[in-house]
Every structure is written in structure tokens, then in C-alpha cells.
Amino acid sequence: MPSSISSFDQDPLTLYSKTLHDYTLHLWTESRRVAEEKAKRKLARMEEETTPRNSPTTQRPRSP
User: Fold this and answer.
1) Measured on CA atoms in the order 34, 40, 45, 46, is the torsion positive or negative?
2) Higher pLDDT residue, 24 or 51?
3) Contact between 8 and 2 (Cβ < 8 Å)
4) Longest dimension (CA), the chain
5) Per-residue pLDDT tens for 21-47?
């Protein structure tokens, strides 16, 4: 059993485990950010496709 908290923090397996945890958390967080951005772009594209544009068939006639 470690004699103090600081010696526990210096344990190679503990340091490796923490480093690996931090690294995988970073990768997971980044992949979620990318996935959310992709979903937002897809939603915006879908909304753009369903929104009528200013074309001759969708414009209201002008009053004289």
C-alpha cells in the first residue's frame, strides 16, 4: 500500500491509466463535437431543401 498520496500518483500503472483515460476522453469528446456539427449541417441542408425559394412558381404576383 502506498505510504502517501504523492507516491500513489507516481505509480507507473496509475499514471498510464490516467493518461489513457484522458486521451480516450479527449478523442470521444472530439468525435461527439464532429458528429454534432455534421448533424447540424445535415439538418440545415434538409431545411433548405424543403423551404421554397424565390422562383417564378413560388413568388406571389405583384399588385399593379
Assistant:
1) positive
2) 24
3) yes
4) 92
5) 999 999 999 999 999 999 999 999 999
* pLDDT reported for residue 10: 83
State which amino acid sits at residue 17. Answer: S
pLDDT score, position 51 = 82
Reading the block at residue 43, the C-alpha cell is: 439538418
What gap in Å lies between CA 5 and CA 20, rounded to an integer?
20
- What DSSP assignment string belongs to the chain? --SSHHHHHT-HHHHHHHHHHHHHHHHHHHHHHHHHHHHHHHHHHHHHHHSPPS-TTTSPPPP-
pTM: 0.56
